[in-house]
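Fold this: S9 family peptidase
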Amino acid sequence: MELTAELVVSGLRVGGPAVSPDGRSVVFAARGVGDGAEERPEGLRWCGEPAELVFRVGGQLCAVGASGPARVLADLPEGVRWHLPLASGEVALAVPGLGGASRLSLLDPVSGVSRAVDLGDRHVAEAAQRPGGGPLAVLTWEGPGYDPGLLRPRLHLVEPEGLAVRDLGPVAAGAEGLAWWRSGDRWRLAHLALTPPGLQAGMAVFDAEVPESGAIVEHVNRTAGMAACPLELVQVERGAPLVLVAAGLDTEVHRLGADGLTLLARHEARVERLAADGAGEVVAAVVSRADAPPDVCSGPVGGDLTRVSDSRPELRGIRWGERRRLSCVAVDGVELDGLLVLPPGKAEADGPFPMVVLPHGGPYDRHADGFALDWHPSAQWLAHAGFAALLPNPRGGSGRGHEFAAAVAGRAGHEELGDLLALLDHVVGLGVADPERVGIAGWSHGGYLAAWAVATTDRFAAALVGAGVSDWGRQGAEGEWGAFDAALACGEAEEHDPVARAGGIRVPVLVVHGAEDVNVPVSQAELLRDALVEHGVEHELVVYEGEGHVIEGVEQQVDLLERTREWFTRWLGVR
């Protein structure tokens, strides 16, 4: 069965699951590619006795019980950004306010009466109610944008009855994932945040006792020194929170306790959107494995997870390329990992193959041991065209702890590129890659690394730069992440910027971008194009109108996939 671009982008995509309080039911939403946002059920949350599911569709807040059908709780034409059912029967809502900031209100679905919570002009990012119907912990930002919003977040305590608000003080940048839990006779509040003081840093679990009055005195880093990175924090109604952790190529589930984290399970997969029952003993998540696309899986918190959805049956007849885990040592002794994907039906002994290196985005992300097929340049798509694919995990990424992530602060492209080349040398040494026929392709920060790699080395025969930064000074001023981008690249332009080093590019470059991208503005692609023209470099520029940082249109996704194969077949060749 042939893997076509249309097949890659077809089928359903599953959303985050919700586990019923008794652990007997798992509910999730699925959507087709290109479905309108107003049609998608979002924010699935169980509540009440008997338990029913509360969710939102567009501007409507809805509920459905075991016997159905769904009913509309409230019509909110101004929109709802998130919702949280409360023990009282009210629903906490984040609704759009002046300047785009979210404002918090408590809605009684029966009477239709809504009560506004006065948090000044701060943007409400999220909230969590203390188990048993207690106060709300509320996380706010200075404004709705990532910069400065994520830079100076604060915590507040809101009493649902009288709406009294107490300021609990500041938390570290990037705070998210509030979770209450009880230790002895004291209530504690945990959250995720970047490890201070930098913005290019590993995430950590912070935990604090909530005092009877005043602000929180100290947030303790419960994952300090851990050679892994927390991804998600899940509040449990009758127990301590669960923590989803990126651990190298794997994903782990831990439980938070007074002494830190306790490992419950390790999965050779990419695991996301973790949910739990009321006791924290039954979990569900979106899981993708090397040979299986993302699906909802469920099981005991400390055991194997079994698939409960079947989102991509149309892929069942496809033979996938063999995947191998890689490890090697960087030139300065740092241990590295990554993945190798071979053409279907081929073994390492059949090499050397033309190869495409696929650096991930972020840089605070990783290649986990999951399903390597997507709308952007991806391993299985290229493998089916006869290429081997290298998925490196250089410094700056997640999964290896804070120090590994923070190593690239102010040094974009330096350690990252060195680590990428170390892994490339490793697979060339294995006889898998033909060193004369190696390309590089990436999206977002991966696109930046692709441009930087061909500007500063002669190791690659062609490149695809997708939504990548080419001028860090302009990016810091124009991109939506502002200070976070500035934390990645400091110093002279020639130390980081592909446009400043474009005179070193000697190979063909395909530049691809969304016209409406606000994360990495399309001006970055235009600057790179201009530099390539100036230096007489073979290139193409493709701009998808109406698309942002993520390409969502089906026709555009198909076009990108086909261009990716055609570009590397043209310049690397497949024998």
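The radius of gyration is 24 Å. The longest strand covers residues 433-443.
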